[in-house]
Amino acid sequence: MSGLQLPHDELVSVYRTMRMIRRFEERVMDEMSTGDIPGNTHLYAGQEASAVGVCLHLNEDDYISSTHRGHGHSIAKGVEIDGMMAELFGKASGTCGGKGGSQHIADIRKGMLGANGIVAAGAPITCGAALSAKLQGTRQVAVAFAGDGAMNEGVMSESFNLAKIWNLPIVFAIENNGFGEATANEHVSAGSFTRRAESFDIPAIEVDGTDVFAVYTAAGEAVERARNGGGPTMLHILVPRYYGHYSGDPDNYRTPEEKAAMRQERDCLVKFRKHVKEVSLLDTAELDAVDDAVEEEIDRAVAAARAAPLPQLSALLTDVYVKYL
Amino acid sequence: MSLIEAVTVPKWGMTMTEGTITQWMVGEGDAILRGQEILEIETTKVTNVVESTASGTLRRIVLKEGTTAPVGALAGVITDDAATQDEIEAFIASYADRLGSGEDGDASAATPRAVAVEGGAVNLLEAGEGSDDVVLFLHGFGGDLTTWLFNQPEIAQTMRTIAVDLPGHGNSTPVQAADVLDAITSAVLASIQDAAPARFHLVAHSFGGAVAASIAAKEPSRVASVTLIAPIGLGKEINRDFLIDFIAAERRRPLLGVLERLFADPSKITNDMVEGTLRFKRLEGVPEALTNIAGAIANETGQVQAIGETLAALACPVMLIWGEGDQIVPLPNRDNLPANVEMRVIPGVGHMPQMEASSAVNDAIKENTRRG
Amino acid sequence: MAKKSFRQALNEALHSEMARDPSVIMMGEDLTGGAGAKGVKDAWGGPFGVTKGLLDAFGPERIRDTPISEAAFIGAAAGAALTGMRPIAEIMFVDFAGVCLDQIMNQAAKFRYMFGGRAKTPLVIRATYGAGSRSGSQHTQALYPIFTHIPGLKVVIPSNPYDAKGLLLQAIRDDDPVIFLEHKMLYDTVGEVPDASYTIPFGEARVVRDGKDVLIVAIGRMVGVAEEAARQLAADGISACVIDPRTTSPLDEDTLLEEAERIGRVVIVDEANPRCSVATDISALFADKCFDALKAPIKLVTAPHTPVPYAPNLEDAYVPTPDAVVKAAKSIARR
Predict the structure, then answer these.
(1) What is the CATH number of the domain that holds B311?
(2) What is the per-residue pLDDT for B1?
(3) Which residues of chain C neighbour B42 with C-beta distances below 8 Å?
C-alpha cells in the first residue's frame, strides 16, 4: 500500500464512500430479514475499495455500467442513497420510481447506465456509451464493471474485441470475488483473465481490490489511457464477497473458517484506517465521526423509504414507450 | 335498325386511365331514361355517377361491381326492344377490338409539366385545343389540380384549358413570403406566361377565388371572364376549424372526418382521396406552407381577405357558384354582393360543387365563358 | 413523381436523415463492404445494396462495418442510444436475432420502463426477413411475432417503396426502439416515391383497396398477394377490402375493427408460422371486440408449422399464395 498525494478532504471522502457502501449493504441485509424488502438483492459488502478506487477518477458525466451486484457502484458513482433505499423497498420515491428494483437501479443523469440482471450484458452497452463519447469528441470515459462469472459469457469477449478494434475510451473493471453464484471460479474458468484481455492486445492490470490506493493507482492508468484516446484497458480486481450470492443464500459452499478469515484479513476499511494512521494522514476521531454521520444518513434513508408510498397503480402502464400512439 | 348504346367507363380527370365500378343502380332488364343515373364509379377523388345517354333497357351488364377497367371500356349495353341477342353479342365482341385500337389513346396523352418560376416551379396540366382564350383553373386550400377532374376534360372538349397546382400544393413548390397571397399570384401569372400570353378565363374554387381576384386586379385587361366557386373574401364568416383541423390531421380517420365537412354527401369520398391528401400533407414543408396560407384566409375574427371591390370593378362577366349546404364558406347574403355579379346556388351540395354537381357546374362555366 | 425501388426508397431515407441529423450513425456487417481490404471501398453497400453510397457521404466514423458480433454491436447500439446518439443497427437476417436477443429483449426494450421513465432508447434495428430466395431455414423466417410480443419495442413492416421511406424516416426520428423489417423479396419492387422527406405515423394502417364483401388483412409481402387475390375475387363478383397494418406494434386496432365491423367476413394472410403469430393476435382482437359483427369464422392463411424448406417447389408451397387467399375468401363469402 502506497501513501497517496490525495488531499485531506478527498481522503475523508474515500473512506466515507466505502463506509457508506459497507453500512448500506449491512443495513439492507437487516431490513431484508424483516420481510419488507421485496424479492432478493445481491450485496457488495467486501468489494468497496474496487468501486470507490475506480470511480474516484470519474466525473459526473463519465459513464459506468454495473451488474446485479450494483449498490456499491451506484453509491460510488454518486447515486443518492435515499433514492436507492426507496427503490429497494419498491417505493414511488425510488431512483426508478419503484419499477426497477435492486438489479435495475440506474441514474443516467449521474452517468450510471444501470445495474443489470443479465450477466455481462453491461459490457456491450458500455461500449456503446464509449462510442457516443468518442463520436461526440467529449473525452468522456466509460467503465464496465463485471464479475468473474461474466468473463465466460461470449458477449464479454465480443466486447473486448469491439472495444479494441474501435479504440473505445473504455475500462473493463473485472471484480473477481472467486465465485460465480455458488460455483468457484477455478471450477469454470480456463486460462487467466488478464491473458484473455491481452490476447486482444488490451493492457491488463491485476490489483488487490481490498487496497483502495492500489485500485486508485491502477484505475488512474486505465482511465487516463481511455481519456487520451489510447483505447481500452482491463483491470482484474481481486475482492472478497462477504455475503452469499444473494441475500437469501445460506452460503454453505464456503466453510465458516474461510468466511471468518476473509472478514479478518481482507477488509478494505480496516486496511484504510490502518494505513492512514500509519502515515498520519487522518486521525481516528475524524473517521469515527464519519462512521456516525454515515449511520445517521442511512437511518434517515431507511425511515424515509419505509414511510414513502408505493407507486400508484397507474404507474404499471407508464413509460413503456416515450410515445406509443 | 336497332338502337344499341354503349355504357362506357368515362374519362374523369385528364390523367385518369381506369375506373372501378362500385355500384350498378339499375339491373339487367330494367327500363332506363336518358339522363338517369345508372352506374357509380370510383375515381381517385370521389365516387361519381354515370348518367345514361339513351333511353331503353339495360340489356347487359358487362363489367360487374368491383371490377376495375380502362377508360372507355364497355361496362354495359342499353338497347331498344328491337335489338336481338346476336346483335348484342356482336356489339360486345366489337368493343373488345375497339378498346385496343387506340381510339381512346388520348386518355394517357395529357401529362402535367413543371414550369420554372422564381424560387421554384409551378406544376400545370394543359388540355384541349383551338380557342384563343384559355380557361385557367385554380383549386382551393389543401387541394390540387385534380380537383377539376370532372370539369377540365369536359371544358377541354371545346376550349384550351390550364389547371394549375398552386404553390405549396400538388407538385408545385411552396413560396416563402410575408404576403403569401401576393407571392402565389405572381408565381401563377409567371407560370402561364407562355401558355396563356393573352386573355384567359378564370375558374377558381375557395382560396383559389382570392388568387383569381388578385390576378384580375393585377391584369384586368387580360381577364375575359371570372367564375368563382364558393370563393373566400365575400364575407366574414368561415369555418376556421376546418383549416386548423385539416392541417392537424395526420392520420386517415381524423382526416376523413375533416374531409367529410366538404361534401353534402360524405359517402362519396373515396379511400384514394383520403390517402392522396395524407401523402400530400406529410411532405416536408407542407404543414408550414399550409399554415401560412391558412393565416392568409382567416384569423380568430374570421375571414381576412376581401375581394368584393375587385369584382365590382370588373367589366367582364362575373359568376359565383355556391353549394346551398356549404359548411366551410357559408352562402353569403345576395344583398352583400356586388351588383354585377351573377349568383348561382346549387341545392343539395356542399363546398365542392365542382365535384358533387359537376354537370351543373360545367354548364355554368360554359355559359359564363361564352359571354366573355 | 419518380418511380423508385424499395431499396432506393430506403437508401434515400437513410441518406436524407443522416444529412439532417448528425447524431444518426449506422453499424452492421458489411454495411459498406471492403473495410480494411485493399480493393474497392463500399464494395457491397450492404448485403442487399441498401446502404450503398453512404460511406462516401458520411465517412467511416458514422457508417461502421462491424465484426460478426451481433450481441456486442446491438448492445453497443443500445448503449449509444441511451447516451445521446440515434443509431441504426442492422441484423443481416432477422434469423440471427437469436444471437443478440438479450440486448434487444432484456436491455433496449426495457431501459425506459425499468429506469422509471428516466431513459430513452432511440434505436432502430433493421433486419431482412422472409422466404422466397431459396436460402434455407436459417435465412428466411418472419420473426415479427416475437418482437411484437415484447413490450417496449415497436415493430414496422413496410409493404411497398412509398411506405418504406416514410416509415424508416419515422423510425429514425422515433424515440423508442424500433425493429424495422425489410422483406428481402421486396427490394426490387417499384413504386412512386416523392423526392421530399415525409414520415408516416406508426399505428396507422393503410386501406390498400376498398371493398365490401370480405376483409383481407395482410402483412409485408403478403399485401401484394392480397391485392392479387382481390383482383381475382373482383372478377368473380366478390369485392374485397385489403388492409395493410404497416406496424404490428403499435397496431391500428381502430381501423381494423372499423372495417371488420363493417364487413363481417375476415381473411388474414401472414407469411409467419401460425402458432402465436400476428394473424392469431388480430383474430383474437376481432373475436373479442367485434364478435357480434362477424358473419363467418375468421380465416387464417399462413405458412405451415415448419421451418422454411430449401427445394424451390417446397419453398413455394410454404409461402401463402393468392389462390390460397381467394379460396379462403370464397369459403366465407356470402353464406
Answers:
(1) 3.40.50.1820
(2) 62
(3) 210
Closest CA to C81 of C56, C107, C59: C107
Prediction pTM value: 0.92
**Rounded Cα distance, B271 and C262, in Å:** 15
Q: Are residues C230 and C165 both part of a single domain?
A: no
Instruction: Check if C71 contacts B (Cβ < 8 Å).
Output: no
The residue written with cell numbers 493507482 in the block is A217
C319 to A122, A199, C97, C141: CA distances (angstroms): 40, 47, 22, 11
**Chain centroid to CA B332:** 22
The ipTM, to two decimals, is 0.93
Q: Is B91 in the same domain as B150?
A: no
**Does A132 reach chain C within 8 Å, measured CB to CB?**
yes
Residue C182 domain flag:
yes
Instruction: Report yes or no on B18 lying in a domain.
Output: yes
Domains of chain A, start order: 8-307 (3.40.50.970)
- C46 CB within 8 Å of a chain B CB: no
pLDDT (tens place) for every residue of chain A, 325 residues total? 455 678 999 999 999 999 999 999 999 999 999 999 999 999 999 999 999 999 999 999 999 999 999 999 999 999 999 999 999 999 999 999 999 999 999 999 999 999 999 999 999 999 999 999 999 999 999 999 999 999 999 999 999 999 999 999 999 999 999 999 999 999 999 999 999 999 999 999 999 999 999 999 999 999 999 999 999 999 999 999 999 999 989 999 999 999 999 999 999 999 999 998 888 778 899 999 999 999 999 999 999 999 999 999 999 999 999 999 8
Comparing alpha-carbon positions, the chain C residue that sits nearest to A144 is C79
Whether residue B234 lies inside any domain: the answer is: yes
Find chain C residues with C-beta within 8 A of B251's C-beta.
Answer: 201, 204
Q: Please answer yes or no on whether C198 and B275 come within 8 Å at the CB atom.
A: no
Return the pLDDT at B72: 87
Q: What angle do CA C215, C221, C227 make, to 5 degrees?
A: 40
Q: Rounded to whole angstroms, what are the CA distances from B86 to B81, B90, C251?
A: 13, 6, 55
Nearest CA-CA partner of C102 in A320, A70, A155: A155
Q: How far apart are the first and last CA of chain C?
A: 44
Q: Is A168 within 8 Å of A230 (Cβ atoms)?
A: no
Q: Please count the structural domains in chain C.
A: 2
Which chain C residues are Cβ-neighbours of B285 within 8 angstroms? 196
Q: For the packed helices B240-248 and B286-297, what is the interaxial angle rounded to 10 degrees?
A: 180
Instruction: Please tell me if residue C98 touches chain A, with a CB cutoff of 8 Å.
Output: no
- Taking a C-beta distance cutoff of 8 angstroms, is the pair A88, A102 a contact? yes
> Both C166 and C229 in a single domain?
no
Distance CA B308, CA C224 (A): 53
**What's the domain range around B25?**
4-98
User: Do A121 and C75 count as a contact with CB atoms less than 8 A apart?
Assistant: yes
Minimum CA–CA partner of C201 in chain A: A325
Q: How confident is residue B98, by pLDDT bands cut at 50, 70 and 90?
A: low
Each residue's pLDDT tens digit, B248-306: 999 999 999 999 999 999 988 989 899 999 999 999 999 999 999 999 999 999 999 99
Number of structural domains, chain B? 2
Q: In what order do the strands lie in the sheet with C206-209?
A: C206-209, C240-244, C214-218, C266-270, C299-302
- B47 beta partners: B42
Using DSSP, state whether C335 is helix, strand or coil: coil
| Angle formed by the axes of helices C161-173 and C6-20, nearest 10° | 30
Q: B117 with B168, same domain?
A: yes
| CATH classification of the domain holding B39 | 2.40.50.100
C139 as an active site residue: the answer is yes
Q: Are residues B246 and B155 in the same domain?
A: yes
Q: Are residues B88 and B118 in the same domain?
A: no
Q: Alpha-carbon distance C62 to C80, whole Å? A: 12
